[in-house]
Specification:
Shape: globular
Order of helices and strands: HEEHEEEEEEHEEE
Oligomer: single chain
Radius of gyration: 16 Å
Distance between the termini: 31 Å
Strand order of the largest sheet: 3-11-1-2-8-6-7-5-4
Structural class: alpha+beta
Helix content: 10-25%
């Protein structure tokens, strides 16, 4: 395997010290594109383990909040789409973002999911997991973010332009989330290589 063959931004992350003493991926993420997510007929909560360079974050995804979004993330996770990807954006006190194999913040799986926003005024609290979007309608793809703190994300949900599809919440591994938040940043780019080793779905 040749990690240098990966996307340039991803390769740049592999050349930094790996966060929390984790292992640097030895091969790039798979280049996977789809016309849409397979309908997995998910009818209840789904537990996932997000295995990162800093440890495991347990997430419970709730399809009642955003059924198409949850179905898509579970589909992509089971396809291995997220494996070995870099978490390319971190804003201390606010959130960490990943899910783009190119590591530049514009990658997607070849399709987008519809807006499944909560009501205006919904709080995005510590541990909330939601899909990122480009501010255009129905522009959420594979990228997601995890909220670090209530205070840092208090602006989210305040009006329609600040709503995001909520797919679930962190239920374990908050110490890992804290370790990730403690990584230095250059602007909003982590100064160490922070990777998703795997995204393991239990259903």
């Amino acid at each position: 395997p040749d990690p240098e063959a990966g996307p340039p931004a991803w390769v740049a992350f592999t050349q930094l010290p790996t966060a929390c003493g984790g292992e640097t991926p030895t091969e790039p993420p798979a280049e996977l594109q789809y016309e849409g997510a397979e309908d997995l007929a998910i009818d209840g909560p789904v537990t996932a383990e997000l295995v990162t360079s800093c440890g495991v974050i347990t997430i419970e995804m709730d399809p009642s909040l955003a059924p198409e979004s949850v179905n898509s993330v579970v589909f992509l996770a089971e396809e291995g789409y997220y494996d070995r990807t870099a978490m390319h954006r971190s804003v201390p006190t606010f959130m960490v973002q990943g899910g783009d194999p190119t590591a530049v913040g514009t990658g997607n799986p070849g399709y987008f999911v519809d807006d499944e926003f909560p009501e205006v005024g919904t709080a995005y609290t510590r541990g909330t997991v939601a899909l990122a979007h480009s501010s255009a309608p129905n522009s959420s793809g594979s990228q997601f973010f995890i909220v670090y703190s209530d205070e840092g994300a208090q602006h989210l949900g305040s009006d329609e332009s600040l709503l995001f599809n909520i797919i679930g919440e962190v239920t374990g591994g908050f110490e890992v989330l804290d370790a990730i938040e403690a990584i230095g940043v250059d602007g909003q780019t982590p100064s160490e290589g922070l990777f998703i080793e795997s995204f393991v779905i239990e259903r």
